[in-house]
Amino acid sequence: MAVLAMLTISGCREDDAGLPAVSPSERGSASPAPSAEQNNPRALVDAPRAGGLDKLTGDGALTDVPVDPGEMRDGMTLVTGTYGKPDGQGAPVLFEGVDHVPDDTNERREHLFRGMLEYIQWDPELGHPEAQPVEPGPLGGSVECLLASLSEDGNVICGWADEGTAAVALFEDSTLADAGKLFVEMRADLER
Fold this sequence. Notes:
By secondary structure, this protein is of the alpha+beta class. The chain has helices spanning about 1-5, 105-120, 175-190; strands at about 50, 55, 75-85, 95-100, 130-135, 140-145, 155-160, 165-175. About 20% of the residues lie in helices and about 25% in strands. The longest helix is centred in the middle third of the chain and has 15 residues, at about 105-120. The chain is globular and about 40 Å long.
């Protein structure tokens, strides 16, 4: 909590409206259906390993929150990190998520998607990336990935939203299929 207090985190900015609408799920869709989860909400954990990737420390560790997570309220937790292969090969995966979200987690995921597009400096003049649904795995909810590249591989941003959590991750030099599969595997270690 002390680290969170030291970070300057702002809420949604008015200029978010100029960024691309990234997901068809937001249009005409409500929050994920209520379930037994409401009585026992899931939480995000600062996992030392996620989806077979190690959380990077030292020079590879995050020193700041790279994407605005939206308004943080009492009881919410922000989890961030970069994860990489144990052998150091490949680009690290940037992860950011929040739990105990009191509002619509689909809207929170959309906010995180827009923030990640801004982080990678996606030019809206290139078009509006469309999120594609991904099989969410045993944790359910809704998982989507979007390709922020003009080729078939490049920057892929994946996000999930469920009853109380929302998160996104950036996979550089990847495909939608590979990033989606790894994101679901990472989620199994990051959400409890």
